[in-house]
Amino acid sequence: MPESDIPEIILSKDWIAYVSKSMPELPDTTKARLLNKYNLSLSDINVLYKHPNSISFFEQTVDLGADIRKTFSWITSEIFGILNYHGYNFESNIAVSPVDLYDLITATEKSEITTPVAKKILILKFDGNTSTIHQIAKSNNWLNKVVDSSELVTFCQKVIAENEKKADEYKSTFSNPKNNCKRILNSFVGLAIKKSGSSQAKPQQLVEIFKELLKN
């Protein structure tokens, strides 16, 4: 029986909805959402829960357009590694933003920087560098040289001209199966990358160029 001296309290549906939305998401609800939305495994999610604030960081980075698996890997392997090494926590010692991580992942995907360089940049961010990812790469001369396809053909032609014996050996492959054409092509690809001074050149792209040039 209600107390006579206590006024009746009526909660509107709007108020209940407002309070429900303002309450933090329950762990089970979060896990279910991550499983369904991002196709993360339960073990993946449990790794993120080692630093609960990393979940929001992960989602913000992916929402910017970053690859889900790469984002997860960078957070749990590289960022967690730095935090654990220094005894930091994600809540108060995170030195990068979701935008920074997105830029880092995008730069490696576009071959603007290499993965080892990306890891160096991440460490510099935690050391207090407040510049953007691109600015850090540029100031340290870490940006890869951009090479177009016509330049690649020129580099490949130079490699062939400087290695005529190997080129002839490759051409004789069809008449002499003992010759290792794959080994020669791999050697040429390495020389072409070195000559171009860029890691942006895709090995398979160079292989196709060499195959075409060595037809004659």
UniProtKB/TrEMBL annotation:
One GO-annotated biological process of the protein: glutaminyl-tRNAGln biosynthesis via transamidation
Molecular function, one GO term: ATP binding
Cellular component GO terms, alphabetical: glutamyl-tRNA(Gln) amidotransferase complex; mitochondrion
InterPro entries for the chain: Asn/Gln-tRNA_amidoTrfase_suB/E, Asn/Gln_amidotransferase, Asn/Gln_tRNA_amidoTrase-B-like, GatB_Yqey_C_2
Domain Asn/Gln amidotransferase: 56-214
UniProt keywords, alphabetically: ATP-binding, Ligase, Nucleotide-binding, Protein biosynthesis, Transferase
Native source organism of the sequence: Smittium culicis
Domain of life where this protein originates: Eukaryota
Name recorded for this polypeptide: Glutamyl-tRNA(Gln) amidotransferase subunit B, chloroplastic/mitochondrial
Keyword Phosphoprotein: no
PANTHER family with a match to the protein in the record: GLUTAMYL-TRNA GLN AMIDOTRANSFERASE SUBUNIT B MITOCHONDRIAL AND PROKARYOTIC PET112-RELATED, GLUTAMYL-TRNA(GLN) AMIDOTRANSFERASE SUBUNIT B, MITOCHONDRIAL
Family matches, as SUPFAM superfamilies: GatB/YqeY motif
